Amino acid sequence: MKKLLEKGNFKKIDEAFLTQSLNVFQDITKIQQKYNKLDTDTFIEVSKIYAYQHSKTRT
After folding, report:
1. Rounded CA gap, 26 and 56, in Å?
2. pTM listed for this prediction
3. What angle do helix axes 40-58 and 15-35 make, rounded to 10 degrees?
4. Predicted confidence pLDDT, tens digits, the chain (59 residues)
5. CA atoms within 13 A on the CB side of 52
6. Quick check: 38 and 32 in contact, CB under 8 A?
7. Dihedral sign, CA of 30, 44, 10, 12?
8. Is 43 exposed, middle or buried (0-12, 13-18, 19+ CB in 10 A)?
């Protein structure tokens, strides 16, 4: 952990933010397991593209 903190400009992250983020990732894990799609990076990238495409159709 010390090496990580020394690498850049570390700023403390609010515990509420971490808790909420953990909850979101746990929900994502459940969805990935349901559909057997366990690559989180691809899941998030595809989700962003999907959200962007659908945001354009709503305007």
Report:
1. 28
2. 0.57
3. 100
4. 677 667 777 778 899 999 999 999 899 899 999 999 888 888 889 889 999 999 887 65
5. 6
6. yes
7. negative
8. middle
Structure confidence at residue 16 (pLDDT): 94
Q: How many whole angstroms separate alpha carbon 32 and alpha carbon 38?
A: 5
- The DSSP annotation for 5-57 comes to HHHS---PPPHHHHHHHHHHHHHHHHHHHHHT---HHHHHHHHHHHHHHHHHH
- Give pLDDT, residue 42: 87
Determine if residue 36 is left, alpha or beta; phi over 0 gives left, psi from -120 to 50 gives alpha, anything else beta. left
